Write the structure tokens for this entry.
Amino acid sequence: MEEKQNFTVSVYTENNIGLLNRLSAIFLKRHINIESMTVSHSEIDHVHRFTFLVNVAETLIKKVVLQLEKQIEVIGAFYHTDEEVIYQETAMFKISTKYMYDERIQNKLKLRRAHVVTITKQYFVIETTGFKEDIDKMYDRLKPYGLLQFVRSGRIAITRPKMDISEILLEN
Amino acid sequence: MKTLNKTLTKEKPKTTIKMSGAEAVINCLLAEGVDLVYGYPGGAIMPVYDELFKYKSKLHHVLTRHEQGATHAAQGFARVTGKTGVVFATSGPGATNIVTGIADAQIDSTPMVCITGQVSSHLLGSDAFQETDIVGISTPVTKWNYQITKASEIPEILAKAFYIAKSGRPGPVLVDITKDAQFGELDFSYKKCKKIRSYKAIPKFNIEKIKEAATLINSAKKPFIVWGQGVILGKAEKEFKNFIEKTDIPSASTVLGLSALESKHRLNVGMVGMHGNYAPNVLTNECDVLIAIGMRFDDRVTGNLNMYAKQAKIIHFEIDPSEVDKNVKTDVAVLGDVKETLSEIINLVDKANHKNWLNEFTKLYEIEYKTIIKDQFNPTKNGLTMGEVINKINKETKGDAIIVSDVGQHQMFACRYADFIKTRSNVTSGGLGTMGFALPAAIGAKMGVPNREVIAIIGDGGFQMTIQELGTILQTKAAVKIVVLNNSFLGMVRQWQELFFDKRYASTVMTNPDFVKIAEGYGIEANRVSKRKDLDKAIKAMIASKSSYFLEVVIESEDNVFPMIPTGASVSDIRLS
């Protein structure tokens, strides 16, 4: 059995309602769990970018990416290993203000390049950006203080290799 | 970026006429050259039907008896003509009823545009009467789909729909139009869609790949071709024939590729796959170069992939990049339009002679003939066989008929034994295996090519899945010939139960109605045959009839289709009994 690994799948598309459904259906058809997903503008005007994180074998992701690319409104689709991308995730933690001056929390914030984004009488909110593992660690450390809320973003990634979307657009 | 922005700015239309969205729909179809639509009216698409009434001299509408029937009829029409089939349905159940036909068209690459009515845009998402999220439902089974909520979108979106359905690897497109968009007014002008920047209909071919393929073919001692529907869809029948004749390569078809090359051509070695011919299946595992042309290595073709043509170099001529290496790893992938790539490669391949290799196919055919075919054509037992019925039809039509088959044993008999002399003569549900396909598909086929004989071969099970379309025949007088091969079983499932489930015939026994009476009830001349001595005459009478005709043939109830590649087995382990 070929080993599974993380792949960041970048899909450049037209901006169309329903496209997310069409793309996720291709993962669903192959019973692939999407670990995270982010949609945003891309570097090109009027072109959107989906960033999926999946954990599968390479032979499989190759096929999936071709099937994604086949969709009419997909301009280009690519997959990259963790080594080929610079990636980050963001997380926010909402914690009761009574822990605000707890020294241990203060230390954790320094350690993880986290910072406080909001303080109210009842709660304060910490934001941190990093690898998934960094955020996992932060989560484990803050959990004992009773997280009022926790949320994390999907992976966002910049690839080291070029993705020549502009060229594809000019060609077609 | 400049060029990019340029393509984004829309050109201003020159001449426009004010009309309603519904009228615009009709005018879009007319602009696309559509003169025939299959459908079923209902609340949310009434504005369009109202316009149909006004335009009935230009655009003919066929009222099927169920929306599924409309889709299969459109598919039958598309398959025999190469044109795009068009379907109208209303929202809610009308829309969900077309899903099977859409899925069928998607997996068999049939160009089809389905237009569904939808509740008014202000009601969307409110669970309104007959509201269903058909765009959501149809997404995984359409090449493209779109919901129109403004009348002004209609011309551009329908132009896109027709372009997408027909170009490249064809497929079904669904356009859902809200009722307010149908009532709304727009300045109509129509411009055909010729390109979409995010969509590459046909990949550019790479001459280096063609050279590599030619080198492999020229050095091959035992080359073997498996062709599929791509040859037909790419209108490359002539180029294909020139190619195989020059290279003298034995060629076998997939189910959907049948009729691209005449059945009796000396290089046509039959059909591959689960119930295909013995020789091409066995020799798949002996060839040294396997050339796949416009086919997708479906599991019913390959059997166990781990034991499929492992000894051979694989060349794959394909229009859809996502099909390359999907199931079978190729050595050389020749992407592009098969008409172009075959026209290129023919100049690079040597004229060859593979007499000895071809003899191996003949030898195995003889084994298949002795053990299976002979007994089908000249049975020793009392009961009629499906094979002899098809064979008799061949004799009467001389292979000139369009054979539309349903799904099951009779389909495999039809595909195995029907003679074809013209392309686009085999219409069947290959990928999806949709029982109930044949009757409406035959109606569509007959309307597509009214001058050709269209014979539907259907089992007693499948017939009853869309039997209501006899009403469409009654109303339209479509001169379809219907042959129901009745073995009072769901035969294919029964065969599997016999072979793999110790004859536990769970829910495969059919208590059938009097089909002849039913056909007669619909005003169709009908006959039933159960004895061999009456078969000839009955088939002659059916072919001689100028109008629609129904023939029920009572078949030996527990006959099996052989050869057969059991699930999980290798193609070369194909069973003769």
Summary: The CA atoms of residues 97 and 121 of chain A lie 6 Å apart. The interface with chain B takes residues 13-14, 17-18, 21-22, 25, 28-29, 44-46, 62-63, 66-67, 69-70, 72-75, 166, 169-170, 172 of chain A (CB under 8 Å).
